[in-house]
Write a structure and sequence with these properties.
By secondary structure, this protein is an alpha+beta fold. The chain has helices spanning about 60-65, 135-140, 165-170, 175-180, 195-215, 230-240, 245-255, 310-325, 365-375; strands at about 30-35, 40, 50, 55-60, 70-75, 80-85, 105-110, 110-115, 125, 130-135, 145-150, 150-155, 295, 305.
Length: about 375
């Protein structure tokens, strides 16, 4: 059973966009909303996220129901009532007379009132009739990780507990406990095999094809890079980086290798290296990296790699920079122009990437493990 935690105090920076440059994130910025890896595009019937007074607002009914909860509007109280699966609540009709429009909107989760104030922002009803709520007000109350990345709002439901099965660690239950997702290290031997990663992609392919056809018909499905799981495992071994988890990070960064963001599939850039939201000029510094293998192409976003293998190795090297203070392993050539921009050894676990690899990055490392890596393990499908 999931135990819901309610907001005893609200982190003022975790879901705030007040630190974002106004020139990049203006009030009319078009935002995307991803809930549990499903992209929701605004339609005439369905509102999308919105920036209001430098806060991200989301349509409450869409978020609540997408997470599997019941959402009820009670006009006599101007209250939005959210009922989780645990509450086993039978929704009743609200037969009272509608309250005046100047009565503040309130939100309850299983009868617990969420406190909205000047810091969090107040819920409001949009012109289209959707109840819009400050994202940081409801994120923790619904036990979710919430991220803001490059104009994309990502909401992910947390599991009650995630532990790697003992037979996938090659050791005892103590070994499994050492690999709980909140302490899983970036360095170490891979746990999932290339075969398991490929099998996961094969299982996901029908859903990914359907998603691309539904949301990006002008792009269509992009075939998975040939041999990429094997490359992540083998190159990861050279650097003592868990290639299976780096592969999971690539799935997150590229949308399962569909590249519907600013970086394109032909760039062989699997972790967004050099992508800052600003188009390249072609004059970006390569910092000694071989310019016949890595390019900065004008009008594109991020670096472009000659081969899939070079792109994978650059990704592994960037992780290596974060987690290790050692020089590159013997015989390895630098392919990451941003290698020396990283404070070396600052991230030992995947959760340490929160706020470092991704800004603000709340839940970033957890999502790599929970949403993209755990489903590839055999016990996730038993």
């Amino acid at each position: 059973m999931r135990k819901h935690k309610f907001l005893a105090g609200i982190l003022l920076t975790a879901w705030s966009v007040s630190a974002l440059p106004a020139a990049v994130y203006a009030e009319d910025t078009a935002l995307q909303l991803i809930i549990n890896n499903q992209l929701y595009l605004p339609t005439e019937e369905q509102a999308g996220p919105a920036l209001v007074n430098e806060r991200v607002y989301v349509p409450l009914r869409l978020v609540g129901e997408s997470l599997g909860h019941q959402v009820q509007w009670l006009p006599s109280q101007r209250r939005v009532a959210i009922w989780t699966e645990e509450s086993a609540h039978v929704v009743e009709e609200d037969s009272g007379e509608a309250a005046a429009e100047d009565v503040p909107i309130t939100i309850t989760v299983d009868d617990t009132l969420l406190s909205a104030d000047a810091d969090t922002g107040q819920p409001y009803i949009a012109a289209e009739g959707h109840t819009m709520v400050p994202l940081r007000l409801v994120g923790e109350a619904l036990d979710c990780d919430v991220q803001w990345q490059d104009g994309v709002v990502i909401v992910s439901q947390r599991p009650a507990e995630v532990v790697v099965p003992p037979d996938n660690t090659g050791g005892t239950q103590e070994d499994a406990e050492a690999h709980r997702y909140d302490s899983l290290t970036i360095q170490g031997k891979h746990i999932a095999t290339a075969e398991q990663l490929n099998a996961y992609l094969e299982r996901k392919e029908p859903d990914i094809r359907a998603m691309m056809e539904r949301n990006y018909p002008d792009i269509g499905f992009t075939p998975f890079p040939e041999g990429i799981a094997e490359l992540y495992i083998s190159i990861g071994e050279k650097y003592n980086i868990r290639g299976d988890l780096a592969f999971a990070q690539a799935l997150k960064e590229t949308g399962y290798f569909q590249f519907y963001g600013s970086v394109k599939s032909f760039q062989n850039n699997f972790c967004g290296l050099g992508a800052s939201g600003v188009e390249n000029t072609g004059e970006e510094a390569l910092n000694g990296v071989d310019p016949t293998r890595v390019y900065s192409i004008p009008k594109l976003h991020g670096l472009t790699y000659l081969t899939v293998a070079d792109g994978v190795e650059a990704h592994i090297q960037h992780l290596y920079a974060y987690t290790s203070e050692e020089e590159l392993p013997e015989g390895c050539e630098l392919l990451d122009p941003r290698f020396h921009y990283v404070k070396r050894g600052v991230a030992k676990t995947w959760l340490d990437l929160d706020g470092r690899w991704a800004i603000p990055g709340v839940g970033y490392g957890e999502s790599i493990i929970r949403d993209y890596w755990m489903p590839a393990l055999p016990d996730a499908n038993s």
